[in-house]
Records
---
Amino acid sequence: MPWRSARRAPEHSEQPLAGFKLAHPMLSADGSRGGFSGVTVGRGHVYLAVDDAICVQGSRHASPSKWCDCGFYCFHDIASARDLACEPEHRNAVLLEVAASGRYRRYERGLRYSRQRVRSVRVNRCDCGQPATVLVDTGAGSTGWRQLLPTCLACVGARPRLELQAFARLAGHCVTISGEAAPVDTELSGAGQVALLHAEMALLQARLDDLQSRLDALTRGGDA
Amino acid sequence: MQLGRKLAEGYAADPEAEESAPPIAEAPAEPRVEVETTVEPVRA
């Protein structure tokens, strides 16, 4: 009986493979380019919207390598990336939709691959819960790059800001960027909005009652 | 990022990425090392 190898023939695709991942938006020190940094293995390395993987361990081998954990990473489905975003250290990361290409290694939940094209960037809400509409400097970064944080206009204060669309232009390569809609518009409808309006009316009524009682007290004091 | 068990290897093309990819820097050439050796005369 002839011996048969268990090794599978390599796959081949004429199209890039879709994937989802978390990243931190980055702005070059001179403000001329937008990029991204990883949240796990490649957190110290900044990549552009279209880029080739390098070994972040400093080796000169082609990436990804069988003997190393380097390379671009992504999940097959958006839910896995959103699950990872629940971890406290990843709350400020943005969600990327990417096209993975070049040499790749396919795993149960995702890919490790050599070339990446960022298609879209989805920005989380600001820490206050409102939709983030601008990016501000976090104070963190790496040599030549500042790490950015999605923020709403109310929380940005006097800090320098970068509009989301301006970041997309700096990233180039037709990258699109979007933020989450306002919570009231997306999550409440019908009965939910009626309940919210009732609660706001009750608050207004309580405030009016308080003002009326203070006015009465002042009026009585003036009469005395 | 935990991806689970490896299932396969492969190659995927992306014409859009290939058109706009940054130029790949050429690896610096290894310096040539020349070693001088003294050759002993062969005695018959």
---
Amino acid sequence: MRSSRTEVLQGTLDLLVLKTLDSMGPMHGFGIAARIRQVSEDLLQLNQGTLYPALLRLEQRGWIVSRWGVSENNRRAKYYSLTRAGRKQLAEEAESWDRMSAVINRVLRTS
Amino acid sequence: MRELCRVLIRRVAAVFHHRHLEDDLDAELRSHLEMAVELNLRKGMTAEDARREALRAFGGVEQIKEAYRDQRGLPMMETALQDLRFGFRMLRRSPGFSTLAVLCLTLGIGANAAVFSWIEGILLRPYPLVTHQDRLLAVSGTNRGASGSSDVSWPDFLDLQRSCTLIDAFIAEKITGTTLSIGDRAQRVPGSIVSANYFDAIGVHPILGRGFEPGEDSGRNAHPVTVISHQMWRERFNGDPAILGKTQILNGLPHTIVGVAPEGFYGTFVGYAFQFWVPASMQAQFDAGLYKLEDRGARWIEGFVRLKPGVTPEQAQAEISAVAKRLETDYPETNRGRGIRLFPLWQTPFNNAGALLPTLGVALGVVGAVLFIACANVGNLLLVRSFARRHEMTVRLAIGAGRGRLVRQLLTEGLLLSALAAAGGLVVAFWLRDALVLLVPPRGGVALRLPGELDWRVLALSAGVGLLSTLLFGLVPAILTSNIDLAGALRSQSGGVVGARGRSWVRSSLVLVQMSLSFVLLVGAGLLIQSLQGIRSARPGFSTQGVLTTSIDLFTAGYDAQRAKNFQDELVDRVQALAGVESAAFSRMTPFSYRNYSSAPIAVEGYETPPDQQPTAEYNEVGPGYLATMGIPLLSGREFTRSDNETARLVAVVNEPMAAEYWRGEDPVGKRLQVKGRWMQVVGVARVSKYRNFLETPKPFFYVPLRQNFSSQAGLNIRTPQSRGAMASALVREIHALDPGVAPQEIITMREQVDRSTSSQRIGVALLGVFGGLALLLAAIGLYGVMSYAVSQSTRELGLRMALGARASDLLRLVMSRGLALTGGGVVLGAAAALGSTRLLGYLLYNVSPRDPLAFGSASVVMMIASLAACFLPAWRATRTDPVRALRH
């Protein structure tokens, strides 16, 4: 079970976060982590903590913004949401990811 | 790109909101963990398991925080700030050390910045408001077979202007002046005769009116127009906005004011602030009526060229030389052997740049040495501290600080010192920027203008020099510290031995270098003081006692030649009739004045001139009794009398070297000499004297009667035992009796006139004296530092010696001899360096050998005394060592 888990590639974490925020709307860090885990059906191994430097990086670039708010359980939490620039970035990255994986697939199949 | 900027801004902002963001991060991570725990509890885990699982899934909290912080701020900058804060704390903790170090460096950097600013303001960027100074070169004439440079004639100038294609503009200029009367006193103001393209070519636009128009520089006295300086406009015309079209009398002729130069423009002559400019067509009006615009043999222009962009000075020189060659073949009578040479502005031969160049070079060397000495001191101080802080450093290393981090910390402290010192140094430089002119006396009653220029280039260079030197000297302790061996450093610190080898060699050699550099400076100062004394007691070949001199400008007062001759004759009669006056005589020039002698090509009957050469000699136009008045002895023949006038035969008196060179030992009296194509009979031979300054070598020179070569702007020399003050009022009375509209210029003794010529030596003495003293003080501080450190590090040895029966005097001798050995080494090294370098002062030395034993000897004595003083306190402290405490330690 453990060995079939995959390490998250550097850089793909950004894509995952952006996509999550895109489909789920504003979320806090724990929520994002839980969602990634759930969607990947526990196959992605992610140290949840590494999410935070990534969130900061995205925020510094202006792709997401954060705001303190209150969670469903009445807990103070920082909510992240996608900006217009972030949406554009997501589209670009998703497209390049598709292209990349298609190329890699083709290479793997043909040899 | 925009994204990068945004990231950077946020990161920088984060550095300054450190505390707030840190709280934010804590809160966010805590809320994450709590949510995770809550979820786990809901899944049915025990409280402890829920917590452990949450932490496991999260990863190491502290590592994440660290990664987050690195992402958030600027880690490099944050550690730098940390170092800086720590550095400040260290400096504050030892205020004595910090003050001393900063003071040493401030003096060193300040002296350098001041000299840089002089070099910038006088040599490199001498002309404020003039554009493209980097493409400006000075133009001067050369004469084959003669050294030095000459001027350029107007026809040659026009031909060069027409023929050279690589040059944007030829700018002709000649310094001149006029006398403006202010009440009873006549005041000389400097101005300039320029070609019509002048203001356009240098890119200076008058704030009112215009510059000169093409064609205004041709014709004889055809365009009496002038552009006046901003200063003159403000002071003489009270800033009159309707000044254009008004007239100002210059040299007796009304000139229409057509423009006012912008504020801060002083013309293009190093040393003077020009007050007016006239076009070249007015040349004769300012040159005692001699019209030179059509005379190819009359060389009077000191000009500039502005190169076209991209043209090198070599290319321009090649083209100009080719044109000059052609002129030589086209006009052999006037141009044989004549060339044209370009000079960079800082070597300009005709203004004060060339004269100050060697002095500024010496100044640069001196302040460089002072900076080095100051840096060596700081280096030494840092070293001492790095040893004193060895314990601290060792502990830091032991608990895991990287060596790189320690080195960076020490360098930060060094940089902090140098930044403080650089700021202080710039303040010092700001005070000193105009100090140079204080050492140069006014000439002909006109104050000189020699400003320093503290522009960004000077600031950057000074800061760079300061930083570099501190880095260099901060690096030594840093490197030495990084060699600490952990075990050894924790051992006792006072087990050294006086004079032990080991790391102290670095400090000792620094002191050695300091001592030798100070020695060189002291020797230089000694040599210059001796030559100044030599000059003061030297005999220039004319009387310096009992002769007064002044100048009377009848040309400006509007006299024609005949009236001026009458006036001069009558005035001499009246002055000679005054009680106490032995004799009086006019002359166009007086020795050692700032003006130039006339110079002319000569031919001597019976003397074969080598082909391709044109002998020239300088001469003075003098009145009857001039040689007697000046106290210049006659060797044979007679001097001029009243009867050597316009109607009489042309005569001349030659000096000894001239007689020796052209008549080869025969008595030239009765022989003939041709000057500017006119034959003159030699009637006397005068003993050689100094003509311009003391350093000149004997050269051919002759005198002609003022009457036969008239100038209405002439000096009046009076031989009298009376004081200057008494004579001055009598003279003014006699002049006013003849014409109340004429006033004499400043009346001074010949002694004073001679003294004024020694300004370079005095600048040298001031520079070397002040900085030599400073260097010695710094070096003594360095020696003191080394010795007191050595004593403090060897208390155990000293205590042991005492316990074994050494007396206080033995210990005193031990420490003193060690200090003196350092000094002795410094003196030996310095003597070697001085023997090699003092000949650079050759141009300033009068009758003193650069290896003068007296200068070397007295410098050694001064060094010894200073180092005795520096070593005494540490040595005395050594004798106070308490053997019991020293040994128990």
---
Amino acid sequence: MSPDKDNHVNRRTVLTYAGTAAAVGLAGCSGSDGGDGSDGSDGSDGSDGDGMDGSDGSDGSDGGSESFEIGVTMGQMDSGLDPQDHAETNTEIIVGQAYEGLLDRDKQGGIIAGLATDWERTGDGNVRFVLREGVTFHNGDALTAEDVAFSIRRIVFDDVGIASPQKNDLGSIEEVIPGDGEVVVDFTSYNTIAFQLFATNGQIMQQSWVEENDGDYINRNTNGTGPFVVTEYDSGNQVAYEPNEDYWDGDVPVDRLTMSASSESSTRVNRLLAEETDIVTNVPPQEVSRVESSDVAGISSVPSARIIFLQMRYDVEPFSSQQFRQAMNHAVDVESIIENVLNGFGNITGQPTLEGHVGHNPDIDPYPYDPDEAERLVEESGHAGVEITLQTPIGRYLGDVEIAQAAASQIDSLSNVSCELEQREFSSLVQDITTGNIEDKPHFNLLGWGNGEFDGSQTITPLMTTDGALTIMKNEELDGLLADAEATQDAEERVAILQEANQLAHDLAPWVFLHQQFSVYGVSNDISWEPRSDEFIDPDTATQQ
Amino acid sequence: MSFGRFVLKRSLQGIGVVWGVVTVVFLLRFVTPGSAINAVAPLDASQETRQAIAAELGLDQPLYIQYGQYIFDLLRGDMGFSYIRGQEVAGLVFGRLPATVELALTASIVAIVLSIPLGVLSATRRNEPVDYGATLFSLGGISTPNFWLGIMLILIFAVEYDVFNTSGRGVDVGDVAFSVIGSEPFVGTLLAWLAYITLPSIALGTYFMALITRLTRSGMLDELGKGYVQAARAKGLPRTLVRYKHALRNTLIPIITVLGLQLGTLIGGAVITEAVFSWPGLGSLVIDSINRRDWPVLQGSLIIIGTSFVLVNVLVDAVYTYLNPQVVND
């Protein structure tokens, strides 16, 4: 374990040596990280982007770049280091440096090999993963099929140890059968997106290590197979890593990695500009110019897998009227909001499935901003003069309050609708949203949804179908389309069905379709790093400038 | 009443206060909107998953059983498990306490060392430039919000001039102490520690410093105008002796009371400063726990903060009584 808790190594080193110099009258001490190691990371390329069977195509190492130290500052730290007992992006980023799943994703969200080198469907619709050989956990023990089976079972079965919040993330699994260098996952019914689910979820732990340690220990320590080994865990403050010397994917080109957090966005930006960290997350729009105008860092952004929208409950007036819901879509000037509130960091949407995700319909255009058309539709709906209230969470999504203020103001500017805004603390709002009873849900609220599986069904099903956990909609045709998409085993046919569902969702307009949120990072000029579209941070792909 | 009985009485009252804090904080979770389950489970978790999580966290039990279990565990020294982190609350809370105490004590020491001489100087040189300067500083210090001051300090001294760190706690006072006997250079480690703690200490301690300066000034002015001071001067006692042994000692009695209360406030109230400087103390743990509805950690933190208040106040009462024995009889 490293005794150095400082992620601002240069400054501290300088101060330390300065102090030494002052004390003993010496000068000329050198500092800094240095290091000239080479890497050997490869670029696995045997991916498929559509969830079909595939295989690893690792193409060997390229080598040649220098080793270095890197710091990442996020908005919040982890909720413990158990990779199967959380449901948060920040925790996923922190534990995901040490743990891996059977499959992984590339920068664009395509499926690539992880701990499995081959994956396929068996004749009966179940899936088989062939495990990578020679993989060891950080404690030196070899990865086994039993470890993989145990890990999956720990997530989906309550009697294996914990009530995992990821239970639904791997689909409905009947049993997991370990074999000779392979694992077969037996689903209760044909799962069309099995590989998408395993590319996003299901990190692998060592069975004996989990069984030998209690929850407190597992949440403070790691024993994964990933590229980094946790060397220091200061709960809620900082996690330090060193490279896994035995990593199956070759040398990790980073000498030391530090993850820390600052809840204040200005503090994160200040840390970046003071060169105390290398990557900061969620740079707010108002801070972007400060970063871009500096000579030490820049902005790097990528469209994320998160869509932002205004939900309208189908069973209450005036939102029970399809015309009124469409009117709300015409009333909100989304492009103006993206430009003025989000500083351009957003893509306008017109359907629940984002571009690049399975089932996206390229023929659907967003609703144009047209207040006159909005007023006409409101008149036709019979709800002229109605008063509505938009509820928004505070600080949950990038610029959420400002976006809601702008949308409510634009709706309120219609001559025949009055709209007020109610700001709510997210925990309070989400309690109403997640109630199993639609009658308890808000009538009109802002929400965001991250689709880590990059599959349209993972947005439409929970949010728009009758039995969805977060639904505000009931439409038999839409339910039928999603059921068809789930039943079909033909990938092309499934895409066509989902595209049809997206067209129907556009027409039904249960949401005011707003935008695709961007992940906006501040990145030090000392490194070169490209962000991923699934919000995961992979410092092992960064290189020294 | 003897001094010992007085302190014992105060201590028993303190235990009652801590129990009240425990109970109120426990009950708050049931009237506060939002559920810990939503902080643990994903938005689209099924009702079955939510129920399983509730059962695992013990949230499916009736209120009185949860309360009884919590008090029982607490009396055994078990503060429970974090809903969110899955870690022992005691480890989390006591892991953060040193950072907060270090910050609060540093801010207090700096404030006391600077403010009392400044207050005395201001009182003894009334209506002179130094008095005007001290008054202006006091007003500014009391009026300035510490979050704004913190941000300004960071922008000027960390980002612009690169003298101090913007945030975090890379080196603690323990590192400095160990550097005396260890291999790390002492001066370098001390400078590194100062690079981290200086700005948050100033941001946190400025209000404190301004308050004590004003209290010292007004107290000294009051005492210097009293008859016993005139008598002491008339007897020929040196001016310095009269000021610092007699007048200042009497001035310190109300100041110590305020010091005690303020030290408790600094331990529990460094929330904003800790957030601005990402200082990993109890304040930031409280904020994080509130945001995540992590009630066991919040309860544990508030119990420690409440207990700190009580302990400091019992200590202040003891010192106060020592300085002014009449208090016991009053």
